[in-house]
Structure prediction request, 317 residues.
Amino acid sequence: MPSPVLRRALLLSTLALACSAQASKPLVMGFSQVGAESEWRSANTASVKSAAQAAGIQLKFADAQQKQENQVKAIRSFIAQKVDVIAFSPVVESGFETVLREAKAAKIPVILTDRAGKVSDPSLYVTFIGSDFVEEGRKAARWVLEQAKGGKALNIAELQGTVGSAPAIDRKKGFEEVLKGNAKLQIIRSQSGEFTRAKGKEVMEAFLKVKDGKKIDLLYAHNDDMAIGAIQAIEEAGLKPGKDILIVSIDGVRGAFEAMKAGKLNVTVECNPLLGPQLMQLAKEVVAGKAVPKRVTVEEGVFTADQAAKELPNRKY
Ligand code: AHR
Prediction:
């Protein structure tokens, strides 16, 4: 039987070991990604994964395959696993309230990233880091206004993103806000292409087949992937994308720069997917109990076809 002094010394060293193990335990983040629907999304996933590794954060990554129910399931599983922090990009804006309440009850902080969600109680998430999608829509529309200088009329076709998603709702809103009251700039067709190339092509084919006598002069695509799909459809219809039909889209991925360089896309509004490093920094601060801003935005630009060749080698995604 060790002496009381020895017993105390043993107890203290056990406690010290436990504390140091706790201190070196990596922060665990549960991350529910939208899917792999676009070039933008792949760049975002790569950024999150590499930034987690660089920050020494253990990442539990789940791909929702563009389905809300998969995201809810993943968040519930992160709660059951008692992760330190949950981050996710909501596939659609609404319908996450219940699962967010469950995370709050389990005292697990939630960070929204890329896409915002609509909740009646803002305390259900700590912070949101992502682009200003309404402003992106406005930027696209300002470029359209420049093309219509001198009172030129333009018939516009719109390829919307995923129905109910923040970027689809906000990019439409910002675009229409700027064009409002201009009778010569009409959106004559508008449908979702689900942010994918395949669907963008399919919907554009359908747009071009409608025989209502109205020619499409300009395409506004809520992302580059749908624009790239549409470019194929336009070429297959015997028309010249970028000339017979002007095209403006959003994201600024390499594929868009290549299309601009080839003269097939006129302009892309940047939406930065490289959110990983900022997200990991925020996660560390949130878990440490530090105060963080409720909204963190990202700086972005607009690129036209004449800048494409020079810019292409600098693109990081
Ligand atoms: O939420 C960001 C949007 O989602 C990107 O613009 C699009 O490419 C992606 O699928």
About this structure: The CA atoms of residues 50 and 228 lie 27 Å apart. The chain has a mean pLDDT of 93.
